[in-house]
Specification:
The complex is a heterotrimer of chains A (270), B (275) and C (280).
Chain A lengths: L17 H4 L2 H17 L3 H18 L3 H6 L5 H14 L4 E5 L2 E4 H27 L2 H12 L9 H31 L9 H7 L1 H24 L18 H23 L3
Antiparallel strand pairs in A: 1-2
Chain B lengths: L4 E10 L9 E9 L3 E5 L6 H8 L7 E6 L2 E2 L6 H7 E4 L12 H11 L4 H14 L15 H13 L5 E5 L7 H16 L3 E6 L10 E6 L2 E6 L1 H6 L13 H11 L11 H8 L2
Parallel strand pairs in B: 3-8, 3-9, 6-7, 7-8
Antiparallel strand pairs in B: 1-2, 1-4, 4-5, 9-10
Chain C lengths: L1 E11 L7 E12 L3 E5 L6 H8 L7 E6 L2 E2 L7 H7 E4 L12 H11 L4 H14 L16 H13 L5 E5 L7 H16 L3 E6 L2 H4 L5 E6 L2 E6 L1 H10 L9 H11 L10 H13 L1
Parallel strand pairs in C: 3-8, 3-9, 6-7, 7-8
Antiparallel strand pairs in C: 1-2, 1-4, 4-5, 9-10
Classes of the chains: A mainly alpha (270), B alpha/beta (275), C alpha/beta (280).
Chain lengths: 270, 275, 280
């Protein structure tokens, strides 16, 4: 059970809001565009506008601000680390020196920017996963990639794999926990010695886990066949994706905002 | 062939690839529409193999299997057979496809290519029939073992099949889960559904119309549960165990304390002694 | 020599929204050469209790002592405790990993640093105990039947020479003859001096061999005592009738309807009494 605690990042929280009800295809495209936008801007005031935009989306999604911010927690170390690397290793006019460490104005700026960009990236991405169920996300991706189907791209298969993987993650985490405990009870020492010894000690956990995964996969395949699954062909959906005019408006607003902001960023403020 | 015959097996043999011994050795069997048939036998008696033959998941290596008048050997019949004969397996965790109850229930009818409103109607009906309506939007992971198995039944029912085959569905459930599932099944039986129920728990078969005992790939016995218990300890040669309540019933019956018509159940015996 | 549990409390995910009390106020003692059966519905905390006995989980409140070693995450003697208390998980055949059955069963004694000669002796004893002879030593555990796999898995716990054996639903998925064999095996182990803790929801199976029965409900001790006391107490709580064997339920119903019969799980005794009564 203890593994599950770390999985709360970006887990779907059902609610009735404009963002929740939006078409997943629009949300996926919108998120990609926003993320590109975040990486295009260079001006400090542009980041403030992004922050306002983010706030707007959060309010529209009826999620609590604390929850969204909390979902960035697991990657905060990465954000700080990136910023720190830039502080240290960007050349330019030194602002001050401390022994062999020199901090430059350029470094400070780049560090803060990269950190903020990463932070925005995580926050926008987690709004997507917080407001879209895994099933919708898979459907959205399948539909977005379906133009590639004639070229042999397995859009349906990938989406189905994603659905099943998400369904089995908690089950397999429980399973791992159980096998680890069973081997501990048989006197296995899973956390002693160097890396090589530890890897070797994990063989009694990994082999049973593989056996279980294969057994489950086989059972599931038979069960799916028994329920008439024969691939994506001829399959319909209970909740088919329906693009509404609201989705168009949302996407147009997002695109215009990103375009305008990057235009302003380049032309006016620099 | 009359229309109310659901399964008709003639001299069916089945051998798994790579094994020396046939798992089924000449099964002759007919099941009528609306029957509740229990298939019992020890582990390795061939009962699970027979279940998979009934759903065209396995095709007999010899002999013929007609399912609702369709020959399972003809590959064009396979999907029609599977949509008519739904199947529930032992481990509920290994047959749930989706993360949300409603999405999982919809999986079958979606595969049949039905329109959204039909799917929705069938999902609503089957969740209601299995008592899972309140869990419709819940995560499948959070359900208990018994609820998961009822969800598997709901997923099978959503294809609105006339027949349902269950392969040891209660093996992993606790007494409460077992009881709930059996209640769902007897409700379905009353509505006219044909049920083939595989179990190695002999005490679960008392509510069935007919029992088929499998042993080493053969049908060893075929009749009503009551008649089966007339054998007493004789059923042990098939790897079956006489439930204590049935032992008590036959002791009382042999001593002439209760009449022959009394059912070998707790309620039957109590009622006979203290009407 | 005993396991003593006093006022045990275990909470999963303390301090988070997922916080659930798994066990609370558990008091019991388990002695060698004694049989304790733990019953309860799914989610009653049975498996959590099992993991406490083997120092895989630690309680937030209360104490557990195994042969007077106090179980505490900082204790240096946890490995000793795990050797003393063998734990057979649910579906233990899923933990098998070795290439041969010999290596599988030798895994535990080797982990405890037993010398090779003793390991060989332990493996032999453990496999004989579960009814597998030396022709099995070099076979792969993955090529056995379900029932044989389960026996290898139990042998692989017995080979550590535990004083107590805790089994979580060991009969799940076995057929009638498999269940009977397993119960016979456990009875034999108890005769040899092991303390047995059997976790199950099949009270019918365990009623005859248990000295003590613990019934858990939502992590609390519903009743604990001798089989007679526990049957009495369960019959008073209607919901828990389901846990009781049908013969017990029946004798109780007959008793309530005015027949003077003993409340028992023994169908022969009940039949005898009924036959005598009616003949009179």
């Amino acid at each position: 059970m203890k593994f599950l605690d770390h999985l709360t990042f970006g887990q779907y929280i059902p609610a009735d809001s404009f963002v929740h009800n939006a078409d997943p295809r629009g949300k996926i495209l919108g998120t990609i565009i926003l993320l590109t936008g975040v990486f295009l801007v260079k001006h400090p005031s542009a980041f403030c506008i992004w922050a306002l935009f983010l706030l707007g989306v959060i309010l529209m999604s009826r999620l609590s601000i604390r929850l969204v911010m909390g979902s960035a927690k697991p990657v905060m170390i990465l954000v700080l680390f990136t910023a720190f690397i830039h502080f240290l290793f960007t050349g330019g006019e030194p602002l001050f020196k401390l022994g062999f460490v020199k901090i430059t104005y350029e470094g400070l700026r780049m560090g803060v920017y990269m950190g903020l960009r990463l932070l925005f990236l995580v926050l926008f991405a987690s709004i997507l996963t917080l407001t879209t169920s895994p099933m919708e996300l898979a459907d959205g991706l399948e539909s977005l990639f379906s133009p590639l189907k004639p070229f042999g791209f397995p859009a349906h298969e990938l989406a189905m794999m994603m659905t099943i993987a998400l369904r089995f993650i908690p089950t397999l985490l429980d399973e791992t926990d159980r096998i680890m405990k069973a081997q501990l009870a048989r006197g296995a020492d899973l956390d002693k010695g160097n890396i090589w010894n530890r890897l070797k000690a994990f063989i009694p956990v990994l082999i049973p886990l593989f056996v279980i995964v294969f057994q489950r996969a086989e059972d599931l395949a038979i069960a799916m066949e028994a329920r008439c699954y024969k691939g994506g062909k001829g399959r319909t959906r209970m909740h088919p994706l329906a693009w509404k005019y609201k989705d168009t408006i949302g996407l147009v607003i997002t695109i215009s905002a990103v375009a305008l902001l990057s235009f302003l960023d380049r032309r006016l403020w620099l | 062939m009359p229309e109310d015959v659901v399964f008709s097996l003639r001299d069916v043999y089945f051998k798994y690839p790579g094994s020396d011994e046939a798992a089924l050795k000449g099964i002759d069997l007919e099941v009528q529409a609306g029957e509740w048939v229990a298939l019992v036998g020890s582990n390795g008696s061939g009962k699970s193999t027979l279940a998979r033959i009934l759903n065209a998941l396995l095709i007999p290596t010899q002999g013929a299997c007609f399912i609702l008048d369709m020959d399972s050997k003809e590959s064009e019949n396979i999907w029609a057979i599977r949509s008519k004969v739904a199947m529930v397996f032992q481990n509920p965790d290994n047959q749930i496809v989706a993360s949300v109850v409603e999405d999982d229930t919809a999986f079958g009818p979606e595969n049949l290519g039905l329109c959204p409103s039909d799917i929705c109607e069938k999902v609503t009906w089957s969740l209601d029939a299995t008592g899972l309506t309140e869990y419709r939007n819940k995560a499948t992971y959070a359900l208990s073992g018994g609820q998961k198995q009822r969800l598997a039944v709901a997923g099978a029912l959503a294809m609105t099949p006339p027949v349902i085959v269950l392969d040891e569905p209660t093996a992993m459930l606790d007494p409460q889960g077992r009881k709930d599932l059996l209640n769902v099944l007897s409700e379905l039986h009353m509505q006219g559904m044909t049920i083939v129920y595989i179990s190695h728990r002999i005490e679960e078969i008392l509510s069935c119309d007919r029992v088929i005992v499998m042993n080493e790939g053969n049908v060893s016995w075929d009749g009503t549960p009551r008649d089966l218990f007339e054998f007493g300890k004789g059923i042990e040669k098939w790897g079956l165990e006489v439930p204590p309540i049935v032992r008590l019933w036959s002791m009382l019956k042999n001593a002439g304390i209760i009449s022959k018509e009394v059912q070998p159940t707790k309620d039957g015996v109590v009622h006979a002694l203290c009407p | 020599m005993s396991i003593e549990i006093h006022n045990l409390k275990h909470v999963y995910h303390p301090g988070t929204p997922l916080e659930t009390i798994a066990l609370q106020g558990i008091d019991l003692s388990i002695h060698m050469k004694q049989w304790l059966t733990v019953v309860g519905h799914t989610g009653s905390g049975k498996s959590t209790l099992a993991q406490h006995l083997n120092a895989l989980l630690f309680c937030q409140e209360g104490t557990i002592k195994v042969d007077s070693i106090s179980l505490d995450p900082r204790s240096k003697q946890l490995r000793t405790v795990r050797q003393k208390v063998g734990l057979v998980f649910q579906y233990p055949e899923q933990q098998l990993f070795a290439e041969t059955i010999y290596d599988e069963v030798a895994f535990a004694p080797r982990n405890w640093g037993v010398d090779p000669d003793t390991v060989a002796e332990r493996v032999e004893n453990a496999l004989v105990r579960v009814g597998l002879n030396s022709s099995f030593y070099q076979r792969s555990p993955f090529h056995l039947s379900g029932g044989e796999k389960r026996r290898v898995a139990i042998a692989s716990v017995l080979s550590a020479n535990p004083d107590y054996l805790v089994l979580d639903e060991p009969t799940a998925g076995l057929d009638a003859s498999g269940r009977k064999d397993l119960m016979g095996l456990l009875a034999g182990l108890r005769e040899d001096g092991l303390g047995i803790v059997l976790i199950t929801h099949d009270l019918e199976l365990a009623l005859a061999c248990s000295e003590k029965i613990l019934v858990l409900e939502h992590g609390r001790q519903l009743t604990y005592g001798t089989p007679e006391n526990v049957i009495d107490s369960l019959l008073k709580r209607h919901v828990y009738g389901l846990l009781l064997p049908e013969v017990v339920q029946m004798s109780h119903e007959l008793f309530l309807k005015g027949l003077d019969v003993p409340i028992t799980g023994d169908e022969f005794l009940l039949a005898q009494v009924l036959i005598e009564k009616v003949r009179k």
